[in-house]
Amino acid sequence: MYPEKISETSKGVYIIAATPFTDSGELDLDSCDSLTDFYLDKGVTGFTILGMMGEAPKLTEAETLAVMDRVLGRIDGRVPVVVGVSHASNRHVERLAKTAMDQGAAGVMLAPVANLKTDEQVYHYFATMARLLGPDIPICLQDFPQVTGVHMSVGVILQLIDDFPQVVMLKHEDFPGMRKLSELRTQSADAGRRRISILVGNGGLFLPQEMLRGADGAMTGFAYPEMLVQACALFDQGRADEAEDLYNLYLPLLRHEFQYGLGLALRKETLRRRGAIRSAYVRRPGPVLGAIDMAELGRLIERQAQALRERGL
Q1: Most buried of 11, 25, 37, 203 (most Cβ within 10 A)?
Q2: Which GO molecular-function terms appear in the entry (predicted)?
Q3: What Rg, from alpha-carbon coordinates, does the chain have?
């Protein structure tokens, strides 16, 4: 049973799934199962696997295929899965994307390759990839210049939307990028353009503001996905103040987890403490938490738990 493909109307929380390893750095497929079950239990709308937070560049091709097969099999069509296929090789992108779709993925996420400096170069790259993948594979554009070093202008994104119907989603992760989000929505509406789904990243750090500016949900990996799910549902119901009040209870821990360089280790350690994975190992090169880091995280988790208890949550 395959779920519907992602589309312009996709919304909610597409969790960016971590990739679990053992303490010795080997792929832990049993923890892939438990982590998948954890995310499903928290009510996520969909998954995004093999993204940057999923340490995809650190996996061998065999490991990439093993993770994809395991997660897609575990989910078994219950929710849509977007597969990250970004790679320096166009042929690798094409092969992985078509394999993912054959196995039941709902779409693919694609970031620009490095060293694209002009709007023309950015457009040409994505146009080439859209033609290579064909009209039947829905594409989520990943706009994450802090990591890719590539700036995707509003004009280029709108041109890609106009020219390629398979571009149905944007993972909005520019920083700061809220003005870009507003401009995308305003310029699209003013010109009568096709409206695509926009899901936001950056750990959810600006989620309330981004939802009010026209985002449709989140595509990020905060270790308390139930908050993202509940907050996005409240925004969707027009209950913005309630959504922001809930969000604010988690903000100290969310902000702490967002730290560049250390954030993935904090996220995986939190997932380990919540019983979702057996080891918090981050593949090298990657961050390692020290004793102070661990104690600090524990204090923030306990303070958050206390704040939730005080409000009967």
Answers
A1: 203
A2: 4-hydroxy-tetrahydrodipicolinate synthase activity
A3: 19
What's the CA gap between 51 and 221, in Å, rounded? 10
Q: What is the CATH number of the domain that holds 69?
A: 3.20.20.70
Task: Note the pLDDT of residue 52.
Answer: 82
Instruction: Evaluate whether residue 307 is within a structural domain.
Output: no
Burial classification of residue 156, based on how many CB atoms lie within 10 Å of its CB (0-12 exposed, 13-18 middle, 19 or more buried): buried
Q: What is the pLDDT of residue 1?
A: 53
With 0.85 as the threshold, say if the pTM is over it. yes
Asked if residue 294 is part of any domain, the answer here is: no
> What pLDDT score was predicted for residue 313?
85
Q: Dihedral angle at the C-alpha atoms of 201, 210, 167, 46, nearest 10 degrees?
A: 50
- Strand intervals (E) in the chain: 12-16, 46-49, 81-84, 107-110, 139-143, 167-172, 197-200, 217-218
Strand partners, 172: 143, 200
Residue 132 belongs to domain spanning = 12-237
For residue 227, the tally of other CB atoms under 10 A from its CB is 25
3 located within any domain: no
Are 201 and 16 contacting, i.e. CB atoms less than 8 angstroms apart? yes
Q: Is 169 assigned a ligand-binding role in the annotation?
A: no
The low-confidence residues of the chain, meaning pLDDT below 50, are none
